Amino acid sequence: MTRGEVEAIAPDLIWTETANALARYVRRQVLTPRVAAQGFARLRALPLAVHPVESFVDTVLAAALRHRLSAYDACYLVLAEASGAILVTSDAVLARASPRGELLRG
Fold first, then answer.
1. In the chain, N or C: fewer CB atoms in 10 Å?
2. What's the CATH number of domain 8-103, 3.40.50.1010, 3.30.70.20, 1.20.58.1000, 3.40.50.620?
3. CB of 102 within 8 A of CB of 88?
4. Domain residues of the chain, as ranges?
């Protein structure tokens, strides 16, 4: 990796979580189905290293309980910690749970 490049990682549940969020926006008429599909396609096109949850699921429950997170959010936390990665999120609770959490403000 060269200076200025970022390697992005995520648990494989990113696909279903994103599809669920987009479907919710469509049902609330915040997005059209077409715009939601385009957003999902953009996510799929990113150079994202996706890790199977099965490879680290044994530690997810403990992390969820320790930090009062959903198991879904704990997957991101556990993966970031195991990889030594910075956890970038727009969720303040999740960002605070990680010693290397960075909160995105929109």
1. C
2. 3.40.50.1010
3. yes
4. 8-103
CA–CA gap between residue 77 and residue 82 (Å, rounded): 9
Enumerate the H helices of the chain as residue ranges: 14-27, 33-45, 60-67, 71-83, 92-97
Please give the pLDDT value at position 5: 79
Residue type for 26, please?
V
pLDDT of 6 reads 83
Q: What is the mean pLDDT of residues 21-42?
A: 98
Average pLDDT rounded to a whole number, residues 40-52:
96
Predicted local confidence at residue 102, as pLDDT: 96
Complete DSSP assignment for 41-61: HHHHHS-EEEE-GGGTGGGHH
Q: Residue length, the chain? A: 106
Q: Which residues pair with 103 in a beta bridge?
A: 89
